[in-house]
């Protein structure tokens, strides 16, 4: 995919979000399902460094293959746009896959253990809700990241090989710094 057509995506909370954004780079993330412990672990790193990301001129937009109703109880307090896509239309358009290797890859096992431990502790303390036992879209989704310029050009992308294979915040910020000065300007 070389470019993204302009669209407004419905979000779980707030006004629809423009992708591409006419004034900012968009980091479009594809995650798995509402309450996914592995996704939550990654999104915590985004939340912790959100000020750095926005200072770099990047708008975060996160897509889940869950309904708005399922997501609502899991995304309260997130500072970025969360988009429900239960029919996986955006996933198909962007070529984001599901595969058993999402959970079966040995490279995913340590992050999965950390994520389950963190989520279990948060559940016990009443700070998180458990995910569905049978999430819409299944459990085998793979993450993906796209960095989209204001003109819709896809400047960089990554399609994960396992459940925790996505850009770190450092990788995202390094990508943005490596762009020509005009790439992030509308």
What structural keywords apply?
186 residues, Glutaredoxin, 5-stranded mixed β-sheet, two-stranded antiparallel ribbon, 7 helices, 33% helix, 18% strand
Describe this structure in words.
- It contains seven helices and seven strands; from the N terminus they run E-E-E-H-H-E-H-E-H-H-H-E-E-H.
- The chain is of the alpha/beta class and 186 residues long.
- Helix 3 links the parallel strand 4 (58-64) and strand 5.
- The radius of gyration is 16 Å and the shape is globular.
Give a brief rundown of this model.
This protein has 186 residues and is of the alpha/beta class. The protein has helices spanning 37-48, 50-55, 68-72, 89-93, 101-104, 106-124, 169-178, and strands at 7-9, 17-19, 25-30, 58-64, 81-84, 144-148, 154-159.
Helix share of residues? 25-40%
CATH superfamily: Glutaredoxin
Poorly predicted tracts of residues? none
Number of domains: 1
Q: Secondary-structure blueprint of this entry?
A:
Blueprint: E1 7-9, E2 17-19, E3 25-30, H1 37-48, H2 50-55, E4 58-64, H3 68-72, E5 81-84, H4 89-93, H5 101-104, H6 106-124, E6 144-148, E7 154-159, H7 169-178
Parallel strand pairs: 3-4, 4-5
Antiparallel strand pairs: 1-2, 3-6, 6-7
């Amino acid at each position: 995919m070389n470019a993204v057509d302009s669209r407004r995506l419905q979000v779980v909370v707030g006004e629809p979000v423009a992708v591409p954004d006419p004034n900012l780079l968009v980091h479009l993330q594809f995650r798995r399902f509402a309450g996914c412990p592995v996704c939550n672990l990654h999104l915590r790193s985004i939340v912790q460094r959100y000020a750095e990301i926005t200072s770099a001129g990047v708008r975060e937009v996160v897509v889940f293959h869950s309904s708005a109703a399922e997501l609502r109880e899991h995304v309260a307090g997130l500072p970025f746009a969360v988009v429900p896509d239960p029919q996986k239309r955006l996933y198909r358009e962007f070529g984001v896959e599901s595969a058993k290797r999402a959970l079966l890859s040995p490279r995913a096992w340590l992050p999965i253990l950390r994520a389950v431990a963190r989520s279990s502790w948060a559940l016990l303390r009443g700070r998180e809700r458990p995910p569905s036992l049978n999430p819409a879209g299944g459990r085998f989704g793979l993450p993906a990241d796209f960095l989209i310029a204001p003109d819709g050009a896809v400047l960089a992308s990554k399609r994960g090989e396992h459940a925790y294979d996505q850009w770190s915040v450092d990788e995202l910020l390094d990508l943005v710094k490596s762009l020509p000065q005009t790439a992030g300007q509308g």
